[in-house]
Design brief:
heterotrimer, A alpha/beta, B mainly alpha, C mainly alpha, B: mainly alpha, two-stranded antiparallel sheet, 14 helices, 4 strands, about 5% strand, C: globular, disordered N terminus, disordered C terminus
């Protein structure tokens, strides 16, 4: 197939859990010094493939050869010895250990015949690696206290800390800002130049087109195709991933009428040290976006509005009624709903059933004499499930068994059941596959058309631009700009959001 | 009965395992000890059960939320000493009983406040109050034990109502209330939600802190009540009342299928766990006449039951 | 978090790191414990200056020794994210086994056999506990709760309602007089502390225990064996419990079946008061040792307060208060910090 001899040959690998095929009969060749992207919807089998390569999971059938030699699959140490390194999506490996320890856990450098740790050698090697990556990291602080981007670099350094020939990167940019992403991609290119093969797994097609040499698409555990990146375009790739043609989010016609009533009115909201002087209004039927870098304070603003965090100064009114700060209950009775950033830990209670999750936020109003009315609860769940076309066998199965997209619809359903006036969506499509993503977008637009005031936070700029009527850009906990209509472009948002680029040009934050 | 709602039928296999074990123990007992299964003797021997049983109700709710309360035994001790002290100085049973319950309530409220307000780990908080409450009881009573509270008072533990021992009747009423609360009311559902995922519970508008506070307070109040019954049964109030109860109660609750990590458990399960421990104890002490053997059997039972359930659930998954 | 937008890859993040480091320094549990220990000593010392004599502190350290020895093991168990509340009953069982083997009235076996057997049995039971936890996947609090009950019963059964006395003269002499004037239990404790300290800081195994407690998932991905690490932690605890039994029990006039009751809760208390996170991955040996001293010195300190018998009865109340003080001050501090916006919300 290829001119270059393969570094790693994967042949006929299959794996099934509980009789469901996670991966079936996948064969793949990785040539030396290439960046090979793997993409596919959630559940396509990408993570299973990674786990098999790294030796955590034993496949049912199939074999892998590295440089012509057969790899003992299912043994982490054998994979390491063969030069396979993985940088996992979960960026903090050991939050309580410092960077040096994080790098060397499991393969410490020792002295005195392997008995004692060689702290000095490990430290200097860590410094060298981080220097090569162009970052400086506090080596004595627990990794969990480091900023997200630095943690990511520590994870990358860990993967590089031994002579790896294949580096697997699982969604390395999921929690990085745009600029950090660019730095990371630069490092990946350098690695390729030094002869390392990179298996790059990502949802972000832009990145794949930027750096990959070849791309493999997985769908439902099968390999659909492998292409040279120059031989495909975006639409083809999406078609392969989904198996049908999906319309990517279209730019929505901007603008609700300026005369519709203000639903959410935030005035000079301040939480000391986190954000300050935040003022904005969301009108009936309007979709307002909050853009900015990760850590700029967007999510914190949303959390304060919803009452998860307290705020120090300012005022929030919903349809004219002021909110008590720091009370989720009060925010909910005023008609605010919130789809939080972290679906698995904040949005849903995964072991509980689909039905229980939908009814959880409004259980108290489904009672008679303090007892939950079973019938009312069932009707509510079924309505929500069919309205949002949640794909689940029945309302009784655990939410954990659903796919990312369906889980996200579940969180939406939980809040829509309450008929909110204001809906806050924090990263509504993170980790959601392309198909479900466009469904979620359509749903948000439909709700806005019915008069829901919506506040969207997203790191996915194209998503914000296509979805929102108006954009506020947040930087350092302040609103630094408002963009609307034709002025709202990726470049404009970035110019405002990036600290150094904007500092001189924008002396005063517009209200 | 306690279908946890939303259409899912509760996985009852843990409770089933315990029920089967209970039947086996009873069969054995009926076979080895003639007359063991007679209702009369069972009721007579049930007296030792009720204090545990009452504590277990509160403990079940707490463990379902992923917490733990190690201080219940010490709370009983302190409540008993307060009861004795108030009775000996005022001579009023009513005042003493109220003081006893109030002490339990306050002890629980302190736990609750520390856990919910200061967000301390319940294991640490109750480990501290475990020492503190018992210490205050010891320091205050100085080893003195109060007694002679009169027949009217001991009827609380020894009397019966429609043939059922009075504490038993109190327990059955309370257990029914707790079971309905847990399986039928929104707040019951909230407890499971908190146990599974506290953060998501908060994001769903559940007032986690308030619920936590009231749970520990309730547990304290129940300890006060258990202490009252215990004092009435033995007609003595001293600092070591309830010593070691905390671990026995936790054993019963866990044996009854409540997950120590939170999120699962039922009142009927806890009742089965209590019964299993109780009957095993009776059997061992009646047949072998050995108290030591009793604790060996209970300890092994706990480990084996949970191990068996782990194996069963792992098998079901694969 | 105010400056977090500057924390891009190419930027140094010194401001955040500096502030967290600073706060960690004054937040350290050790400082608080040291303060409580010195306050108590000063208060008692002012009352009765004899409290500062060498003999008193030698006595306090001897009392500390068994707790310190076992706490070294339990600390490692807690660091891996588990807990062990069976050490009190295990100590009783080992004391009974050792007593019956060595006592002149019973089997009268040589110390050279009896002591290794005791150590071996302790380790074996620890490993057994660890295997139930790591391979059987039974929560450790449940396994050790069950063992707490079962081993206590086994002890009473073994003692058959009698106390054991007349341990071999040589053993009791060594236990009481020690080696070169230093009590043997203090020597043993010092050895164990040194060993544990080296283990934690300088041996891969020790760091791996922390790694496992910090994130079991990542540990698995790094190729660490959860089973082996947990077997070690529990086995080590069992071994240390046996050691504590051997050096401490012969000091006593006789071995009763109630020996070591509530010892397990004292040890766990010292471990958590010493700042070891109950969720695993965090904790320093020095904090645990200070907590052991604090918890142990209360009773001897009270005897110096001239309140006679009455004083000692307040021991546990004061213990409880100190525990609360230690953990509450910590949490109050982080609460204040949170409200002054110094803790990042992410």
């Amino acid at each position: 197939m290829n001119a270059a001899p393969a570094l790693i040959q994967i042949r006929g690998v299959s794996k099934s859990y509980d009789g469901v095929h996670a991966l079936s009969d996948v064969s793949l060749d990785l040539t030396p010094a290439e960046i090979h992207a793997v993409c596919g919807e959630n559940g396509a089998g990408k993570s299973t493939l990674i786990k098999i390569l790294s030796g955590i999971v034993q496949p049912d059938v199939g074999h892998i050869t590295v440089n012509g030699r057969s790899l003992n699959i299912g043994d982490v140490h054998a994979s390491e010895a063969a030069g396979i390194a993985v940088m996992y999506q979960e960026s903090t490996a050991f939050p309580h250990l410092n960077a040096v320890e994080n790098l060397f856990v499991g393969r410490e450098i020792t002295r005195c015949g392997g008995l004692f740790l060689n702290h000095a050698a490990m430290k200097s090697q860590t410094e060298r690696l981080l220097q090569k990556l162009g970052v400086s990291v506090n080596l004595s602080a627990p990794a969990g206290d480091l900023p997200l981007a630095q943690r990511q670099m520590v994870a990358l350094a860990r993967a590089l800390s031994w002579d790896c020939r294949l580096l697997i990167m699982d969604e390395p940019t999921a929690s990085l800002s745009n600029r950090e992403t660019q730095t990371l991609l630069r490092i990946v290119r350098q690695l390729r130049a030094s002869g390392v093969t990179v298996l790059y797994v990502s949802h972000r097609l832009d990145e794949i087109f930027q750096i990959a040499d070849r791309v493999t698409v997985l769908r439902d555990g099968r390999k659909v195709s492998t292409h040279r990146i120059t031989a495909v375009d975006r639409h083809q790739l999406i078609r392969h991933m989904v198996g049908r043609s999906v319309e990517e989010s279209q730019r929505s016609p901007a603008g609700t009428a300026d005369n519709s009533p203000v639903i959410l009115d935030v005035k000079q909201l301040t939480r000391r040290g986190v954000f300050s002087d935040i003022s904005f209004q969301v009108r009936e039927g309007e979709i307002l976006g909050l853009a900015g870098l990760v850590g700029a304070g967007r999510s914190e603003i949303a959390r304060a509005i919803f009452g998860i965090d307290e705020f120090d100064e300012g005022e929030i009114r919903v349809a004219g009624r002021p909110l008590k700060g720091g009370s989720v209950q009060d925010a909910m009775t005023s008609g605010i709903g919130m789809v939080p950033e972290d679906r698995q830990h904040e949005g849903l209670i995964l072991p509980m059933s689909v039905g229980e999750n939908i009814s959880l936020a409004m259980l108290r109003s489904l009672t008679r004499w303090g007892i939950v009315r079973r019938q009312a609860e069932r009707e509510l769940t079924e309505t929500q499930m069919s309205d949002l076309s949640v794909k689940a066998a029945n309302p009784g199965i655990a939410a954990a068994t659903l796919s990312g997209g369906n889980q996200q619809k579940l969180v939406l359903g939980k809040w829509l059941a309450r008929n909110p006036k204001v809906l806050i969506l924090d990263e509504p499509t993170r980790g959601v596959d392309v198909g479900a993503k466009s469904q979620v977008h359509q749903l948000i637009r439909k709700l806005a058309a019915k008069g829901l005031a919506t506040l969207v936070i997203s790191s996915d700029l194209p998503e914000l631009l296509s979805l929102c009527d108006r954009l506020l850009v947040v930087r350092s906990g302040r609103i630094v700009g408002e963009l609307q209509g034709a002025t709202a472009t990726q470049e404009a948002v970035l110019a405002l959001a990036l600290p150094d680029a904007a500092e001189s040009r924008l002396p005063e934050a517009p209200r | 009965m306690p279908d946890t709602g939303g259409g899912r039928s509760y996985a009852w296999w843990h409770e089933t395992v315990i029920a089967v074990l209970l039947v086996i123990v009873l069969q054995f007992a009926g076979w080895l000890v003639p007359g063991f299964l007679k209702l009369q003797s069972q009721l007579l021997l049930s007296r030792q059960l009720w204090e545990f049983a009452i504590l277990a109700l509160g403990m079940t709710l707490i463990i379902i939320t992923g917490g733990i309360d190690l201080s219940v035994g010490s709370t009983m001790g302190l409540s008993a000493v307060v009861f004795g002290g108030v009775h000996s100085s005022s001579g009023s049973l009513m005042a003493a009983s109220l003081a006893c319950l109030a002490t339990g309530l306050c002890c629980g409220a302190v736990n609750g406040a520390l856990v919910s307000r200061l967000r301390l780990h319940p294991l640490i908080v109750t480990l501290a109050t475990f020492a503190a409450y018992r210490g205050i009881a010891e320091g205050w009573s100085q080893g003195h034990s109060y007694s002679r509270f009169g027949d009217a008072f001991s009827d609380l533990a020894r009397g019966s109502w429609l043939g059922v021992p009075l504490p038993g009747a109190i327990f059955v009423l309370m257990a029914t209330g707790f079971a309905v609360f847990l399986s039928k009311t929104p707040y019951g559902r909230f407890l499971y939600a908190i146990g599974h995922n506290e953060r998501a519970a908060k994001f769903s508008g559940i007032s986690v802190n308030r619920i936590r506070f009231w749970l520990y307070t309730t547990s304290g109040l129940l300890a006060g009540l258990a202490s009252l019954i215990y004092v009435a049964r033995f007609d003595t109030a001293q600092a070591d009342v309830g010593k070691g109860f905390e671990l026995d109660v936790i054993t019963a609750v866990v044996l009854g299928g409540t997950s120590i990590y939170g999120g699962r458990g039922t009142i009927p399960g806890t009742m089965l766990g209590l019964l299993l421990i109780h009957e095993t104890r009776l059997l061992v002490s009646r047949y072998w006449g050995s108290d030591e053997l009793r604790s060996i059997v209970i300890g092994c039972l706990l480990i084996v039951a949970v191990l068996a359930c782990q194996l069963v659930s792992r098998k079901r998954r694969s | 978090m105010s400056n977090s937008q500057t924390l891009t890859v190419d930027h140094d993040s010194r401001p955040v790191c500096f502030s967290t480091r600073f706060f960690r320094l004054i937040r350290q549990r050790e400082a608080g414990l040291l303060l409580l220990i010195s306050l108590t000593s000063v208060v008692v010392g002012i009352h009765d200056v004899r409290f500062f004599s060498v003999d008193v502190w030698r006595d306090i350290l001897v009392r500390c020794a068994p707790t310190a020895i076992v706490a070294c093991g339990v600390m490692l168990v807690v660091v891996t994210g588990e807990i062990d509340i069976s050490v009190g009953s295990l100590m009783a069982l080992l004391a009974a086994v050792m007593g019956r083997m060595l006592s002149e009235q019973e089997f009268d076996i040589s110390c050279w056999i009896g002591i290794p057997v005791t150590l071996g049995l302790g380790t074996l039971i620890g490993v057994f506990t660890g295997s139930l936890v790591s391979m059987g996947r039974v929560p450790s609090i449940i396994v050790t709760l069950g063992l707490l009950t079962a081993l206590r019963g086994l002890t009473t059964l073994m003692m058959g309602g009698k106390n054991i006395d007349r341990l071999p003269e040589g053993l009791t002499q060594v236990a009481k007089q020690g080696f070169l004037g230093v009590p043997i239990s203090i020597l043993a404790a010092a050895g164990v502390i040194g060993l544990t300290s080296v283990l934690i800081h300088h041996i891969p195994l020790g760091r791996r225990l922390y790694a496992l407690g910090s994130s079991a998932e990542s540990a698995r991905m790094a190729g660490l064996s959860e089973v082996r690490l947990k077997l070690f932690a529990f086995g080590y605890t069992g071994f240390l419990t046996a050691l504590a039994t051997i050096v401490d029990v012969p000091r006593l006039p006789k071995i009763e079946s109630g020996i070591g009751s509530e010892f397990e809760l004292l040890v766990v208390t010292c471990v958590v008061v010493g700042g070891v996170a109950i969720s695993g991955g965090q904790g320093r040996l020095i904090g645990v040792l200070l907590a052991v001293v604090l918890m142990t010195m209360i009773r001897p300190a009270l005897t110096f307060m001239d309140i006679g018998e009455a004083g000692e009865k307040w021991t546990r109340a004061i213990q409880g208060m100190f525990i609360l003080l230690a953990v509450v001050s910590d949490s109050l501090f982080s609460w204040r910090q949170r409200h002054s916006g110094k803790v990042h919300a992410a």
